[in-house]
Structure formats: C-alpha cells, structure tokens
Amino acid sequence: MQQEESNQQSHHKKKFVLPKGHFLFTSESVSSGHPDKLCDFISDSVLDACLEQDPNSKVACESACKNSLVMVFGEITTHAQVPYETIVREAIKQVGYDNISKGLDYRNASVIVSLDQQSQEINQAVVGSKHEDEIGAGDQGLMIGYASDETPELMPLTHHLCNRLISRLQECRESEICPWMRPDAKVQVTVEYKREDSSFYPVRIHNVLISQQHDEKITHSEIEAELHKHVLKHVLPQKYVDEQTQYHLNPSKAFTVGGPYGDAGLTGRKIIVDTYGGWGGHGGGAFSGKDPTKVDRSAAYAARWVAKSLVASKLCKRVMIQVAYGIGISEPLSICVNSYGTQAEGLDDDDLSEIVQNHFDLRPGVIIRELKLRRPIYAKTASGGHFGRNEPEFTWEQPKNINLAAWKAHKAEQQQQNQ
C-alpha cells in the first residue's frame, strides 16, 4: 500500500517536468455566445447605434443576462434616437440565440432598459469648452499595451491560437459546417516555451481544450471527430503539434445547456480574454459599452498601438506599456516601458520611453482623432479579441513607423547643446 502511494505521488510530481529553461503558459478565449460575451456584444451594439447618428455620444452601457431576462443599464448622453430594445433583440439574434433550447430566444426575451444621462460634473471636467485635442480623460485609471514577436500579428502565441479557434468554431457554426453546434463555447491553449537569455520562444503546443455547446442528437465521439477534422486541423500550426500534444474536447461529455440559461452574463467580465490572455498585465478596466473618451478603452488601444509599433520597428522583441490618467486631465500622469531585457543593441528602456514620448501623443483627444475612434466599429470587437486582428476597423493594429536614426540624431544634437 505504501509503495502504491509512493508511485502515485512520484507520477504526479513528474507530470509537468520539462527540460531546463522551459515553461508552460496557458490562455483562454470564449465565443460570442458565452453569456459574458453576449453582454459585451449588446453593450457595444448600443454604443455603435449611438455613434452612427452622433459621433460625440457619451456612452457607458452595461448589460446583464440570465435565463430569458436581459438588462441594459448605465449612462448615455446623445442626440441619437435609438430604439434600445430593438437593438438588444437584434444583437441577441445576431449571436445565434433564436431558440430557447439554445439558452435564449431573442423574440420572447424580457428586456429591461434603465439608462440615464451622463453626470454633468463629469462632462464638464472631461469636455467643457476644451479644444478636441485637449479633452480630458473620462476617468482615472491605468492601461496596458503588450506585443511580442512570437507571431506575425505580434501577439502571444497562446492567445492568438485561442482567438483563432474561437473564430473557426463560429465559422463552422454559422456556415453549418457543423450544424450541431450551438452559440456557447470556450477554448484554452497551453504552449511550451523555451527561455534564451532575456528572450523566449514557443516550442510546441502542450494541450488544447475546447468546450463547445451542442444539440442533443450528436454523440461525444462524433463531437471529438468533428472538432479534429473541422477545427483543430484548420487552426493549429503543424510545426507546434507533436505526438505528445494533448486534446481535451468537451471534457464534461455533455454540454447542451449553455448561454444565459446555463450561466449569468455581465459586460466587462472577460478582460483577459479581450486583451493578451494573461501576458503583460492588465489595468482592470473593461472595454465594451464605453465611448472612446473613456480611456479604459481608447488608451488601452493606444497602448497596444505603441507596443506593436516598438516591436514591429525591431526596437525590442516584446514589450509592455503602462499609461495612467486622471479624470479631466488630458496628459498622461505616467508612462512606463518594460521590454523585459529584449531591447535592441544600444538601447535601454529609458531610450524606449523617450522614443514613445517623441513619437506618440497619448492625450485622449489626439488618440481618438488619430485612431478614428468615433466611428461605429465596436460591435465587431466584442468577440475574438480586441488585438491581433487585421480588419481595417482595428486602426490600433497598424504599426506606426519609428525613425530610430532621426531620434538618435535629435538626441545627439540635444546632448551637444547641453554640454
């Protein structure tokens, strides 16, 4: 008996033994039909409806759902005439909830709308009579941007694969490649990385988990086969897959009860899914349902723009940018650059910080103008991640060219003047 227990303990300890310098990292993502993501989509659909008629709309829209009840609440100041209940029902329909057996039916859902106008005190502090470039931040807070050279999109491989799996699951459901699929789904990807000095790079995919809501007619073995054929083979790069890669496909065996019937949903509860899958940190602010004067959204987009520009310009291999703001204040209260020791030869993080401040104006009004954030583009961001995407609406994914030679020449000139 003692020998048996000893063997079990030994097996457990060896489960994740990796070569020296290797480590595992996991990210997750969820589909548009996940209750939290459904709420994000509803909130961003309301935002888009306001911006379409009034680009200067001030929107802070939250949503919640459970069973057949959907609530929309918050503060909106706009000249737009928006049929809120109609927008909510159309969003539910677009996600795919058209039958109560799936977890919700847009036709007979109970929709409660409770929206007031934005506080005049906040409006005066943020906008007042200021020039557009000088408008203040809509609230205090800190925002994080991150980029890594491990994928062409300059996203962490773990999270990039999660978002691609979610996109493929949605494609298979909407195009009826897999007609048994229902809207709710979650995925998780673990990658083995290898450290080299200050850098690291992905070696292999350690495991993949998919939980896909399904109808009652399909068996578990059929689900596994279809997910391998129609999803995994279309998404996973074969160079990272080996015979030790593990697959956990619908590990609960049955997943027919999903959506708001299986779990309550709330706007802004998937902030790590929305960003970098656990890499780089997070300031805590959610995105969906907020107009771009809310720096939780616009400055987080700008921080990604900055981080991606630094990596795309080969100034570092990966980097995290932190920017902090105060309500009503236009200039950032702080900017921090951390390249994790991967900066290009001859540079350090102080240089990168100076480069950022020379090349990017991070006042909210300027961010809004340069990234064209007053357009009704936000419903598309509510599922599949806000970063690492190539659609034209995602302007923050288009790196800014950084002229390192010009910066060095300017810095040398300043040093000569100071001598």
From TrEMBL:
GO function terms (MF aspect): ATP binding; metal ion binding; methionine adenosyltransferase activity
GO CC field: cytosol
Superkingdom, taxonomy of origin: Eukaryota
Alphabetical keyword list: ATP-binding, Cytoplasm, Magnesium, Metal-binding, Nucleotide-binding, One-carbon metabolism, Potassium, Transferase
Domain S-adenosylmethionine synthetase C-terminal: 257-398
GO biological process: one-carbon metabolic process; S-adenosylmethionine biosynthetic process
Gene3D superfamilies referenced in this protein's UniProt entry, alphabetically: 3.30.300.10
UniProt xrefs under CDD domains: S-AdoMet_synt
Cofactor(s) annotated in UniProt: Mg(2+); K(+)
Family classification: Belongs to the AdoMet synthase family.
Record's function text: Catalyzes the formation of S-adenosylmethionine from methionine and ATP.
Name listed for the protein in its UniProt record: S-adenosylmethionine synthase
Organism: Paramecium tetraurelia
